[in-house]
Design brief:
By secondary structure, this protein is an alpha+beta fold. It contains three helices and two strands. A two-stranded antiparallel sheet has the order 1-2.
Length: 99
């Protein structure tokens, strides 16, 4: 599956909801069609949980959780970190992150 990318809502965008869903697997799931295991944005933009669950016959989630997050002063530090590993934030900001 894909690596977890910590939250980092951009300034003045309010609260963002992050959702975790747990499914019971009926068997082994191959990584084909899963987002990249790197921090690159490639593969994540068009990934949908519903399509993945249907493709692998996962049924309904058996558990879930969520949290809200908002911008804080650490977000620019996260952006620098991601800039060095693939510039994932370029997708979100539409530009580059200064070093």
């Amino acid at each position: 599956m894909a690596d977890y990318v910590e939250c980092g809502p951009l300034k003045d965008t309010g609260n963002h909801r992050y959702v975790f869903l747990l499914y019971k697997q009926p068997g082994k799931i191959t990584p084909e069609g899963c987002p990249s295991s790197s921090l690159q944005i490639r593969g994540r933009r068009k990934f949908t949980v519903q399509a993945f669950a249907e493709k692998h016959s996962l049924g309904e989630p058996v558990a879930g959780n969520f949290f809200l997050a908002a911008y804080d002063d650490y977000v620019p530090e996260k952006q620098k970190k991601f800039y060095t590993v693939g510039n994932i934030f370029t997708y979100f900001t539409g530009g580059s992150v200064s070093k």
